[in-house]
Automatic annotation (TrEMBL):
It comes from Metabacillus hrfriensis. This is DoxX-like family protein.
Amino acid sequence: MKRKPIYVEILIGSDMEKLWNATQTPDLHSSWDLRFSSITYLPKKENEPQHFLYKTNIGFGQSVQGWGKSAGTFHAEDGSRTSSLHFGTDQKMSLIKEGKGYWKYIQKQDKLAFLTQYDYKVNFGRLGTFCDGMIFRPLIGWATALSFDVLKRWLEKNEAPASQYLRFFSTWLISFLFFFIWTYHGTVPKLLFQQPEEVSMTQNLLSISVRQASSIVSAVGIAEILFGLLWLFPINKRRLFGVQIMAFPLLSLSAVLAEPANLVHPFSPITFNAALFILSIIGFFQSRDLPTASSCKRKRLGDNDVYL
């Protein structure tokens, strides 16, 4: 089966020299591109391509280091530019073995179309090919698209890439926390081990029978699980944070009205909800106008370029 090269395109409101400098200067390039932690140019010999070394941190103190060279640049008469690249690594732990690709800069009225297309060979034989197609290629394509949007926002809105990534990843970290909290509280104390305290509080608050209270607790548990799952989807997280900012004070008030002893309980829902309320406020402001891979065009119709 023929693999498809990775293609990413985005429109950027910038002048050509500013975009060229941000993408061709090693320190600036590594600041916005998630695929590289550092890029170091090697001394350039006359009439030879520009060689460089790159490093990508993958966590737990490990990194992938590789080599690259600019295969050439071309400035067309219409003002567009192209930069070709050849890259690879000798590290056996790397899934990518060797690859080629290009960047293009095309003037479109008052904006620039910045695009890339690249492909690569993989290590580990059929297993590497399978892992690449199922996991790595979609992931690196997503990382490329997210990086392009970070670059766009940096040039258009002057927000530093580091600040954008801090907001992006902290928002998702908080989102995973709320996913765990809502699904855990919906599943464990409400559905799997329906706690008598949950039923008792519901019964006291609504003045209903035990059986009715038990049914309501189960329904609330299902609702909490569904709400928790929403945190995993690539939707507007700011709306979810806004819902929680309104919900947590009401949940605290309900807990006190249902059982006044909660005010002096060692694991009081009051303090728990207060912490989540503050975290929701932080998430609400952190999640404003986050960079997103969805702002990029990911397919190029009719493009059958093969590099390797």
